[in-house]
Amino acid sequence: MAFIDDIKRTYRQGSMLMRLIFINIGVFILIRLLAIGAVLLSGSSFPVLQWVELPGDWWLALRRPWTLVTYMFVHNDLWHILFNMLWLYWLGRIFMEFFSSKQLSGLYILGGLGGGALYLLCSNLLGHLHGSALIGSSAAVIAIVVAVAVYVPDYKIGLLFLGQVAIKWVALVTVLIAVLSLDGGNIGGNIAHLGGAAVGAWYALRIKQGHDITRPLNAMLDFIIGLFNGRSLRLPRFKRAASPSAQQQAAPPRQATSTSHHRPDDTVSEEELDVILGKIKAAGYDALSDEEKDKLFKASRRRTP
Q1: 235 CB-near residues (< 8 Å, 6+ apart)
Q2: In this predicted model, which residue has the larger pLDDT, 182 or 115?
Q3: Helix (H, G, I), strand (E, B) or coil at 55
Q4: 75 with 137: CB under 8 angstroms?
Q5: SS3 call for 159
Q6: pLDDT digits (tens, 9 = 90+) for 77-120
Q7: What whole-number distance in Å separates Cα of residue 274 and Cα of residue 286?
Q8: Strand 133-134 with 54-55, pairing
Q9: CA 220 to CA 8: how far, in whole Å?
């Protein structure tokens, strides 16, 4: 069908942000269609959600481990998915100004995992949350919101009736609402929001230090996708800095030259380069330190054919 082909083409050609939105909408429509079909055929609804929502009971969650991932793509209410997807699109576009599409998808999943893990922990410490379940992308989306706010706190966004507001205040109000709503009817959901916010803050703080916490996850996802595409069967390798003593033992002896002790290391990692480019976008080239300018020069010289 031409309509289905158009959707497939739009998905393939779209950004990772649009793909995440497409997946959420597609899952929502599929679940609703299955529920409607069950009612029409048998007169009773089929409990589809129980197989994709994250249960609050840790023993049941262990028996359904996939729900720690599936829950963050599931919505059962039209207004719920509409609000979350608008929030994701709006803040996701800002996120993409400073980071890559892989970092967006990686943080989305890590934020959802962090929210789900905190929810499971609290639901088993607080007995009255037993029997509850978690669905929705809110924790994953809030991770992206908080990451942008911590990375570029003074970035201005336009809000209706309020005008230009620094994004740090938007994130702060979002987290504050989650805290103040812990005595309401959606305690589990708000706990997950706080878990996602914590992951977002952790991501931004680590990226400022030159470390990308989404890299191992993205390497694993690339490996899994490669298995299905038949491109590679090699396990992903994660680089870890060796200790100075290990580097001295492993380094082969070199002949001393007149300039060897003055020559700096020309290698600049992709993580460092991403941080530098993000800093240029946020505050301009003049905001870079002398060391960062030197690294940028080395990277550009290395990539020049």
Answers
A1: 223
A2: 115
A3: strand
A4: yes
A5: strand
A6: 899 999 999 999 999 999 999 998 899 999 999 999 999 999 99
A7: 17
A8: antiparallel
A9: 25
Domain coordinates in residue numbering, the chain: 15-222, 270-305
272 and 239 Cβ atoms separated by less than 8 Å: no
Whole-number Å distance between alpha carbons of 192 and 116? 6
CA 96 to chain centre: 12
Whose CA is closest to 51, among 30, 65, 36, 37? 65
- Tens of pLDDT, residues 37-75: 877 877 666 677 888 999 988 888 899 999 999 999 999
Cα separation of the two ends of the chain:
46
Q: Can you tell me the distance from the alpha carbon of 281 to that of 296, in angstroms, rounded to the nearest whole number?
A: 14
Burial state string for 162-183 with b = 16 or more CB within 10 A and e = fewer than 16: eeeeebbebbeebbeebeeeee
With H, G, I as helix, E, B as strand and everything else as coil, classify residue 163. Answer: strand
Helix (H) or strand (E) holding 156: strand 156-159
Residues 6+ apart with CB under 8 A from 192: 115, 116, 118, 119, 134, 138, 139
Is there a contact between 147 and 204 (Cβ–Cβ < 8 Å)?
Answer: yes
The pTM of the full predicted model, rounded to 2 decimals, is: 0.73
- Model confidence at 279, pLDDT cuts 50, 70, 90, reads confident
Residues 99, 213: Cα–Cα separation, whole Å:
13
Give the CATH number of domain 15-222; options: 3.40.50.720, 3.40.50.1370, 3.30.365.10, 1.20.1540.10.
1.20.1540.10
Phi, psi of 43 (to 5 degrees): 80, 0
String of DSSP letters for 188-209: HHHHHHHHHHHHHHHHHHHHHT
Average pLDDT (196-222) is 92
Query: Rounded to an integer, what distance in angstroms lies between the CA atom of residue 236 and that of residue 255?
Result: 35
